[in-house]
Structures are given as C-alpha cells and as structure tokens.
C-alpha cells in the first residue's frame, strides 16, 4: 500500500508526507529482510544439525552452538527494536 501511494499522481507535491511514506517503506523492508535473514540462518543451522546427526559427528557441535547463539542474539535484537519502535 505504501508503494502504491508513492506511485500516485501528486505524491511528491507534499514533500513531508512523501518522505514519511518512503521512510516507513524502508523501515518495513528492512524488517522483512532481517526476518528473512533470520529464517535463512535457522534453516542453515537445521541442516548443520541434521548433518551432524547423520554422521554422528560431535565435532560440529561448536558450530551448532555458535549458530544458535547468533540466532538468539538476532531475535533479541529484533525484539528490542520492535519494542522500542512500537511496531
């Protein structure tokens, strides 16, 4: 909907509003990208876990732990950003 607004005739006539719409669009795109990156990390970690299980390879455990901690940190960061922004 925000992108549709920017395509409307006269959108750029109100610079304050157009800047707010573009800023909001960027914020939402950034959140979607961060979420997609988180999902990708999660899927990669699941593959690593499956591989370690299939090969019965405990040497992969530090990589799994590291990846899991990174995901947890990303979730904490996203949660805090959401709480602070109110969205």
UniProtKB/TrEMBL annotation:
Domain Peptide chain release factor positions: 1-85
InterPro entries in the cross-refs: PCRF (IPR005139), Pep_chain_release_fac_I_sf (IPR045853)
Signal peptide limits: none
A Pfam family per the record: PCRF
SUPFAM superfamilies referenced in this protein's UniProt entry, alphabetically: Release factor
Gene3D superfamilies linked to this entry: Release factor
A GO BP entry: translational termination
Protein name per UniProt: PCRF domain-containing protein
